[in-house]
């Protein structure tokens, strides 16, 4: 599987671009601000249907343009999968897969598995639990479309329940809250089951990924799901009980104070919490190991390597960690960006990115 062509119109800094990458290694060289990351962002959008920078769709449209367009063809054994996204500066986006609207947007992530190594991956280790939850849900969404759909549905229910709490406060109708709680527990329970399953499947990949980067004698890396309310035998039931227990607090604070949107994924080196007790170098190795583990799991699941994006990664690594990443690079399609050619110790097709063009 590989991206055979990419077309952009009024996307970020690109007025118009046609790019036909190699099925193997592609190295994009250009000055800072030349648009290298924008290309990777567009490729990532074809899989995730969202910006890996977390930017809203409106921010992806070139200044003063009415709409941005991303089109791409993914070559597979079963034939080409054509994904097209139109992003209006105002209004709702339009997504077509082989000329038709997908039944579920989450189906696309399964059809186009992709892993991105980004400069701010360190934040997943160092910052709050939201980024770690997103990491788990993102990987799960590349394996099962229902996992991605459940995350989207859960977030929607939380927003609606919070709006009801804000509007009604202590005057909220208990029967209506019961309905919201039951729906939240049903979808939230499924979401947690998907997270637990994903973490179990990641276990071996995390250990191998961390030792590949940090050395075979390093502490083992593990990820634990952390939720005070959780009974793993029946997550939905235990969430409903927790919502009942926390109802008074929810009414006081006018927000939903318990559920999968508040849980954490603890990362540990041996018995040490990586967020608070690991060195900067160890934390960087953990961040790399998370992406390496995701790559290994998706390769096993799909029986082929996912598309791999490496955005300015080598400039952040010492030689030892760079070698660890290089050794794990797949035979599949890889996109690497760098401001300097000598920072990328890899042989592959080199592309020059300048003034909105790739040559």
3D structure, described in words:
The protein has 359 residues and is α/β, with parallel strands linked by helices. The chain has a domain at 1-113 and 306-359: 3-Layer(aba) Sandwich (Rossmann fold). It has helices spanning 36-48, 106-111, 122-126, 129-143, 145-168, 174-214, 235-245, 247-253, 274-277, 280-302, 319-328, and strands at 2-11, 14-19, 25-29, 67-76, 79-88, 94-97, 114-117, 221-226, 264-269, 272-273, 307-311, 334-338, 349-354, 357-358. A 6-stranded mixed sheet has the order 7-11-12-3-13-14, sandwiched between helices. A 5-stranded antiparallel sheet has the order 2-1-4-5-6, covered by helices on one side. Strand 9 and strand 10 (272-273) form a beta hairpin. The chain is globular. The model has no long low-confidence stretch (mean pLDDT 93).
From the structure above, extract its key features:
single chain, 359 residues, alpha/beta, Rossmann fold, 5-stranded antiparallel beta sheet, 44% helix, 23% strand
- Low-pLDDT runs of 5+ residues are none
Principal-axis shape equals globular
Query: Gyration radius, to the nearest Å?
Result: 21 Å
The ordered string of helix (H) and strand (E) elements is: EEEHEEEHEHHHHEHHEEHHEHEEE
CATH architecture title of the domain at 1-113 and 306-359: 3-Layer(aba) Sandwich
Structural class based on helices, strands and sheet pairing: alpha/beta
Strand content: 15-25%
Tally of separate helices: 11
The CATH topology of the domain at 1-113 and 306-359 is what?
A: Rossmann fold
Strand order of the largest sheet: 7-11-12-3-13-14
Mean pLDDT across every amino acid position: 93
The largest β sheet comes out as: 6 strands, mixed
Proportion of residues in helical segments: 40-55%
Gap between N and C termini: 23 Å
């Amino acid at each position: 599987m590989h991206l055979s062509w990419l077309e952009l119109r009024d996307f970020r800094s690109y007025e118009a671009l046609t790019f036909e990458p190699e099925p193997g290694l592609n190295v994009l060289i250009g000055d800072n601000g030349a648009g290298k990351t924008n290309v990777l962002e567009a490729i990532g959008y074809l899989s995730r249907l969202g910006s890996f920078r977390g930017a809203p769709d409106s921010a992806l449209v070139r200044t003063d343009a009415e709409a941005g367009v991303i089109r791409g063809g993914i070559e597979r054994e079963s034939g080409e999968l054509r994904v097209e996204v139109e992003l209006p500066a105002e209004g709702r986006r339009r997504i077509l897969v082989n000329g038709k609207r997908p039944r579920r947007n989450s189906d696309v992530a399964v059809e186009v598995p992709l892993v991105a190594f980004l400069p701010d991956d360190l934040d997943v280790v160092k910052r709050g639990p939201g980024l770690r939850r997103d990491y788990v849900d993102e990987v799960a969404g590349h394996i099962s479309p229902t996992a991605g759909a459940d995350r989207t549905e859960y977030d929607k229910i939380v927003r609606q329940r919070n709006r009801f709490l804000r509007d009604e406060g202590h005057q909220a109708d208990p029967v209506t809250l019961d309905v919201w709680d039951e729906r939240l527990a049903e979808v939230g329970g499924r979401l947690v089951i998907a997270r637990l399953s994903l973490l179990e499947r990641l276990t071996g990949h995390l250990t191998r990924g961390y030792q590949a980067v940090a050395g075979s004698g390093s502490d083992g890396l593990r990820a634990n799901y952390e939720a005070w309310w959780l009974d793993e035998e029946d997550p939905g039931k235990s969430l409903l009980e927790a919502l009942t227990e926390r109802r008074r607090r929810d009414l006081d604070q006018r927000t939903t104070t318990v559920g999968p949107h508040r849980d954490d994924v603890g990362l540990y080196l041996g018995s040490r919490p990586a967020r608070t007790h690991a060195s900067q170098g160890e934390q960087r190795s953990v961040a790399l190991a998370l992406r390496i583990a995701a790559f290994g799991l998706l390769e096993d699941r799909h029986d082929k390597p996912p598309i791999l994006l490496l955005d300015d990664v080598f400039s952040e690594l010492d030689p030892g960690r760079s070698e660890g990443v290089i050794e794990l690079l797949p035979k599949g399609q890889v996109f690497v960006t760098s401001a300097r050619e000598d920072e990328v110790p890899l042989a592959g097709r080199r592309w020059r990115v300048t003034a909105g063009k790739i040559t």
